[in-house]
Amino acid sequence: MNEIVTEGKTVDVALEEALQKLSTTREKVEVEVLEEGNKGFLGIIGGKDAKIRVKKKEDKHKKALNFMNELIDKMNLGITVEELESESNSEQVVINLTGPNLGIVIGRRGKTLDALQYLANLAINKYDDDDHLRVIIDAEGYRERRKETLQDLALRLASKAKNKGKKVVLEPMPPHERMIIHSTLQDDPKVRTHSEGQDPYRKVIIVAQ
């Protein structure tokens, strides 16, 4: 049972009964008050019970998987959608795409994949700020390969900055990629990094110390 209508002297009493019958907790349900209820005259005459509808929240992990399945199906690329890692109490879910034509969904330097990930996070977390789920969309290990590429790039350009004694300006990157550059070089005492500009044109600057 995922939904129930209950009545009680107050909304809280009705809610407590609903939670018991649904075997769940307040954080995992949506509550709609159908009738506020009132005590009546002197708390005796004309009193009316509160009436509520309580519905279990949709599991966000399943919602994310279903969203991506529907989106990828519409692209007709023969790509399979699978949940790579998940825990019932996890605040993050990784959805992996496998199959042919992955280059199309990855896009140039992962821009299409980032766009799909943005849409998934927007769809899953819209109107729900209290129970945020981070959705990561990957494609047969692309995220890790891209991370390694950026780490190599950071080290190479840091070496260039030190050798020439000049700052090196990288091309614009999304926030999570800029963070990889910063974290890769944060322990190098001979260079410092910072970002300049506004998204989507914000870029990392590597400066020799």
Topology at a glance:
Layout: E1 3-8, H1 11-22, E2 29-35, E3 50-56, H2 60-75, E4 80-85, E5 92-98, H3 102-106, H4 111-125, E6 134-139, H5 142-164, E7 168-169, H6 175-185, E8 191-196, E9 203-208
Parallel strand pairs: 5-6
Antiparallel strand pairs: 1-3, 2-3, 4-5, 7-9, 8-9
Reading the helices and strands in chain order gives EHEEHEEHHEHEHEE
Strand order of the largest sheet: 1-3-2
CATH class of the largest domain: Alpha Beta
CATH topology of the largest domain: GMP Synthetase, Chain A, domain 3
User: Going by CATH, what is the homologous superfamily of the largest domain?
Assistant: K homology (KH) domain
What profile does the largest beta sheet have? 3 strands, antiparallel
User: What's the total helix number?
Assistant: 6
Q: What overall form do the CA principal axes indicate?
A: elongated
Structural class: alpha+beta
Q: Using DSSP, what is the number of strands?
A: 9
Low-confidence stretches: none
β-strand amount: 25-35%
Average pLDDT rating: 89
Instruction: List the domain count as a whole number.
Output: 3
CATH architecture of the largest domain: 2-Layer Sandwich
**Gap between N and C termini:** 64 Å
> Could you estimate the helical fraction of the residues in percent?
25-40%
Q: Give me the Rg, rounded.
A: 26 Å
